[in-house]
Amino acid sequence: MSQNQVSSPAESKPATAASRIAALIPGILLCILVAGVSALLERAELGVFEHPYVEALVMAILLGMAVRSFWKPAPRWQAGIAFSAKQLLEVAVMLLGASISFAAIAASGIALLASIAAVVVVALCVSFGLSRLLGLSKRLSILIACGNSICGNSAIAAVAPIIGANNDEIASSISFTAILGVMMVLGLPLLIPLLQLSATQYGILAGLTVYAVPQVLAATVPAGLISTQIGTLVKLMRVLMLGPVVVGLSLVVSRWQSDAKKTSVGFFRLVPWFILGFLALATLRSLEIVPATVVGPVTKITSFLTVVSMAALGLGVDVRVLANVGGRVTAAVTLSLMLLLGISIALVHWFK
């Protein structure tokens, strides 16, 4: 009797771990299914239009929201959906570091680098201020500012776990940012004859204003090879700003929390583990310790995990909440984008 009582706790530990893993499987599989359908839709779009104007990442969250609008997942699905929305997203952010090489920064020139950094900082501050003036929450304002100023959905996905954003806030910022991102791809080439832009100027403008790298390609390919090359380079350098911004937000948010609670905060609370992993992988990649042959597969894994996470976010969103904040979010994203476009147009006329 006593032996059974002594041994039962030891036996319960693996059983508990196994049961926790088993509880995650249904929700994770559901998210993978939504992500797979989204990837197929993106591939079909690629076959028709030659460029994915709406990425699988956006389709996943919209499809997840559509499913959630007529079916509320039962408790057996919730654990896996929550795991996919948080832990898988954090792993995806960490793996992004393997595709970043700091060596590309040195070859681009100090003037262009300083200009990109200045545009990002100004756009971040003003976008956040506009969102707050429109009555949006602090976390939603941060998401909109980062998405608008850096790299759209990827920035929102990276920043969200750091500031503790909920599903509704993430979905709101991503959904409306995605809509305007597609409009930018379609409308930006019209500025070439209107503003008499050269290929170099238009490439810089596209890299500074279009949200996602595939969208930059879609917006610049019609303008020629030079615009495509320059636009992609500027966009990638803009994406590199995500690292410092994420680390800075980690410090600021932790300070807010520590001030509110008046408790000491350790280093690993100041800088989340996945940000440390991101910086470590970026350093290893820059030192060529991570070989170039690994970057392709890691990038694909990162993209897949991000799409799965966005599907999970969509499945956890109540569309009625989006309807309540839709007008203000749309106004905040639109005004922020117009500001970014105006600053960028002024800048490209300096780069003759």
UniProtKB/TrEMBL annotation:
Subcellular location, record wording: Cell membrane
Chief localisation class: membrane
Topology relative to the membrane: Multi-pass membrane protein
Pfam families from the UniProt entry: Cons_hypoth698 (PF03601)
GO cellular component term, pick one: plasma membrane
Ranges annotated as spanning the membrane: 21-41, 53-71, 83-104, 110-130, 142-164, 170-192, 204-230, 236-254, 266-284, 304-322, 329-351
Keyword terms of this UniProt record: Cell membrane, Membrane, Transmembrane, Transmembrane helix
Family (UniProt): Belongs to the UPF0324 family.
PANTHER family: INNER MEMBRANE PROTEIN YEIH-RELATED (PTHR30106), UPF0324 INNER MEMBRANE PROTEIN YEIH (PTHR30106:SF2)
Protein name: Putative integral membrane protein (TIGR00698 family)
Organism of derivation: Bradyrhizobium sacchari
